[in-house]
Structure prediction request, 145 residues.
Amino acid sequence: MVTVYRHGRVYYSHPFTEFDAYLASGPDHQGFPVHVMNLVHRYHNYKKACALGQLMLQHGNRQHCLDLWSMVQQYMDVTRPLPDLLMLEACRPLDPTTKAWDQAHGRPERFWRDMTDEQYQKAIKHLNEPNQPIWRKKKKSRNAR
Prediction:
């Protein structure tokens, strides 16, 4: 469910599947483009959208907003594991789908929490490599020296 509050009261509440995401773009005070992700209910013309600004403020990088939308979709999909984020790591063993996925793919239970500073820096660099779990060790190619 997505619930939007206005003046301390429920303004509207509908299932997540009834919402569409849209990316609002505009200039900041210096004229640089900024983007913010919003959810809009598909069947009603509410005056207020569900802004995802609490998850990520307006951003100059459009791709980061699209990544946020992918994360929200994965979080809301009960057939998929929770997104692999530090803030959700303690919840991963509590979600049956995520727990099964982690066991099947060999993800350490405390991957983010037990990480050293060096490992964290490598993980940040790794974020630009799509579809590769950070904890999976890369296989050396036969041509590697």
